[in-house]
Predict the structure.
Amino acid sequence: MIVTIFQSAGTVEFLVDSQMNFYFLEMNTRLQVEHPITECITGVDIVDEMLRVAAGYPLSYSQSDIGINGWAVECRVYAEDPVRYLPSIGLLTKYTEPSVQHNDSKLGVRCDSGIVEGSSISIHYDPMISKLVTYGPDRTSAIERMERALDEYVIDGITHNTPLLREILGNERFRSGDISTKFLEEEYPKGYSGGALTALQKGELVPSVAVLHHLKTNRTPSDDSVNYVISCDEEKVPVTVTLQNGKYSVTFEDKTVEVSPTGGTHGTLQEFKLDSTSVVPLQHLRFDGVTHTVRYRCCKRDVTVLTPLQQKYMDTMPVKVKEDTSNLLISPMPGSLSSISVEEGDEVLEGTEVAIVVAMKMNNSLKAPKSGKIKKIWAKVGDIVDGDQKILEFY
């Protein structure tokens, strides 16, 4: 028998059902990833207590000293494609954490991270970017603060899961607490598709981008009305932007919305107030003169703004035909190609494992997309492959 003498402040994990029955899961000699939740609602600095105990001091609290106050929500922000649930690697070309109010404020946002703009997400480690935590007096306020924090969170250069997190927070079933471990399976039976715009969301995005474009392309705007055609998600929306006495209004789809930029238009994060009520946070990532790459409700979108004449000519341009990749095996993620189990000329059946890509310390099995003969092997074992890089070609 091996006896281990251990003295520290560990953490115990439970599940609790609707009848307040507790079910033990595990005990760890370390912090849980969710420890900021406990710190927010109890006011206890768990890390400080662990250090004190390790140094030989007693805990600063007794059980009777610890109460539960308010509500906290934690989002694990990952460098991961939420549509395919695959890791993403690369350089963080833009990175700005949301406005943070430390936990001792009792109302605010907390972001635990270990990266900065310019950091690199590699294939060798867990793809977690941060633990984003919001705290409030009740569940609704904590969720609303999280929505706002995610809208402010600027992450560019890699793919990340904030669009899915943001959409879940707005789900009525989630907001009411009617959730289980089958939530994603039940709410997204065909998988998360990337956040299609609702009519309400289109009503926020279109006028905001219209005014943003007008400001970007008119250095000295004067009272006038200008017509544009805004294209997003394969839909074209004619709009009229009017500036009168320093105030903007946008007319589209038989309605007019007053739009007030609440700050400058030179930073990444910009805000637009619509009809003096709702505020639309918009991350402006890139602009090439006609297309604005923005992040709205965490989803990255390319929104093209043209004059009616420009749109008329654009409609006559030939549509680019998408490349047929049905005869290719393409790596779904960046990683190290650890094995190829076929050779050129081999016959394989659809679904047969033909290669393995290692990423984030996980073996990812790549299977033949069709039955057929191997025509060409485009990579070799040991190669570092990019996402969407071809590995095998079939006849």
